Amino acid sequence: MTAFADYKVPQVLEALGVLDYAAPLKACLRSGEEVPWGCEAELAIRAGTVVAVEALTDALVLAGVPARPMDVDVHLWTMGQEMAMPLPYHRTRTWFY
């Protein structure tokens, strides 16, 4: 099991500096525009989320902290419910969740 590449976890990863969105994507998010399903930016957000959560999990395990990607995902999602975000999450219409 790995991270669930939804809308909140990439938002948290971007706020923490783990993901770095390109300026045009940041402008799109700030304006509330939809990020089309399957476009390059949307795929990069989701893929980057999974890769980042896997890397964070690996770093925790190397530091001696027992961790699984799904646990890191839940922790990040929970953080996102509790912290102010400098950038809105991406809006993508999809039937997957």
Quick summary:
The chain has 4 helices and no strands.
Task: Walk me through this protein's architecture.
The chain is an all-alpha fold and about 100 residues long. It has one domain (about 10-80). The protein has four helices and no strands. Helix 1 (about 10-15) crosses helix 4 (about 70-80). The longest helix has 23 residues, at about 40-60.
Q: Tags for this entry?
A:
56% helix
| Outline | globular
Q: Give the topology string: H per helix, E per strand.
A: HHHH
Percentage of residues in DSSP E strands: under 5%
Oligomer: single chain
Distance between the termini: 17 Å
Task: Describe the SSE topology.
Layout: H1 8-15, H2 23-31, H3 40-62, H4 69-82
